[in-house]
Amino acid sequence: MKVLWLFAHPEQRSLNGALKDDGIAALRADGHEVRVSDLYAMKWNPVVDADDYGHDPADRLDVANHSREAYESGRLAPDIAAEHEKLDWADTVIIQFPLWWYGMPAILKGWFDRVFVKGFGYGVFDEATGRTLRYGEGRLAGKRAMVVLTVGAREHEMGPRGINGGLDAVLFPLQHGTLWYAGMSVLPPLLVAGANRFSPEQYAEAAGRLRERLSTLATTPPIPYRSQNGGDYDANLTLHPHLAPDREDLRIHEAG
Fold it and tell me: Where does the signal peptide begin and end (predicted)?
């Protein structure tokens, strides 16, 4: 496999840094190719602006349309183009970060904001039918993605009745609304809980779980999200009433 490891943590000597190093070493030992986007080490700029598209800042900026024009004409900022090249190369993407205030660190959110431009991450159309290709289809379809997440909370606090909410709900904006939206198949995430209180024994267990998950990246069944154009949604993109009737939780968007 060709794996892009997308990493967002400011400290290399952290739990996250150690897991990253162990995970990459395990992949390479198994014969896989790995490239890394270490956003803090790269001093990644997370802020969208006119310079991303070679656009005159004196003119009104239309982020969607100007990003598409820059992408199609090859005028995107070099750092964005470099990330596109990595994504085109990879067949699997690992997204690793600590959960901060129920979301990604700003630098990682900014990576998606700047890299998933129109025409690449969204705004992709089937020329034959005119359909919008998203939620299971699109430019990144065929690639796999897996989230590796550390949290300070204990694991049961991230359960369906835990005070922090279920993990599937916390990660829904990233896993369903970003990765699946852009067409990527999303594997179940790896949660490393209690990250602020780790013992050497707990680290060994977490690193073992990570290595096990990485060894099955190609065969682990993805989360069975429903595709937009697979017939489960009506013309208004609302789930048909006979599917998951009398439910409104986010898991109605998973088949089975």
Answer: none
Tell me the β-bridge partners of 186. Answer: 145
pLDDT digits (tens, 9 = 90+) for 166-181: 899 999 999 999 999 9
Parent domain of 85: 2-220
CA distance 198 to 194: 7
Residues 6+ apart with CB under 8 A from 32: 1, 2, 3
Give the other-Cβ count within 10 Å of 2's Cβ. 14
Residue 159 domain flag: yes
Map tokens 């060709």 to a residue: 2
Tokens at 247, concatenated: 């439910």
pTM, full prediction: 0.95
φ, ψ for residue 132 (rounded to 5)? -75, 130
- The residue written with tokens 């299971």 in the block is 136
Cα(229)–Cα(135) distance, integer angstroms: 8
Per the domain annotation, does 232 fall within a domain? no
Identify whether 242 is part of a domain. Answer: no
